[in-house]
Amino acid sequence: SNCFLPPLNGLQTVVVGIADLQIPAKAKSEYDQGCAALRSKNLAAAEKHLRSAVKQYQRYAAAWVMLGQSLEAGQKTEEARDACAQPIAGGSDYLPAFLCLADISARLQKWDEVLKLSSRVLELDPTANAVGYAYNAAANFNLHNLSKAETSALKAIEIDRSNHDPRIHFLL
Q: Is the pTM of the predicted complex or chain greater than 0.70?
């Protein structure tokens, strides 16, 4: 289970890697405490627990992404980028890591990066990832690829029937 911040909070990850099955109890406990701290909006405590979780288990992809999101929420952008990149640097195709980086790149208006990251997400999961399509649409829109932006936005809406992320309607 995860407790990601928006827009990743509704993301369903269906692939479980070997590394996910080997998470030590102490690392999992720190992760759970980091989740609780994030829910309480205590970014400092969340960061402390999540850093401890990844120190206990370097391959803890969800903890790295959540650490990245908490750092970004605390406006520590470069540290956030580094944390979100850890699973990818370790050879993982963990979708939330790519989306975390896409989110940071979008906030920095680095649309070429957003397009590259969201395209990778859609290569890995082309059928069920509304967030990936939303970032792809935003990147294409800002790069003036309007027909591609529209195609991705419509696909995001088709997947997200409950309108979990209304921003895509504004983009359209």
A: yes
The residue with tokens 């650490």 is 67
Buried b (16+ CB within 10 A) or exposed e, 48-61: bbbbbbbebbebbb
Q: What are phi and psi of 98, to 5 degrees?
A: -65, -40
Query: Residue with structure tokens 């999992």?
Result: 28
Q: Within a 13 Å sphere around the CA of 168, how many CA atoms are in the beta-carbon half?
A: 26
d(CA 152, CA 145): 11
* Joined tokens for residue 55: 């120190």
What sign results for the dihedral spanned by CA atoms 116, 160, 128, 23? positive
User: How far from each other are the two terminal CA atoms of the chain, in whole angstroms?
Assistant: 32
Q: What is the pLDDT of residues 150-163, one digit of tens each?
A: 999 999 999 988 87
H helix runs in 1-108, sequence order:
18-21, 25-39, 43-56, 61-73, 77-89, 95-107
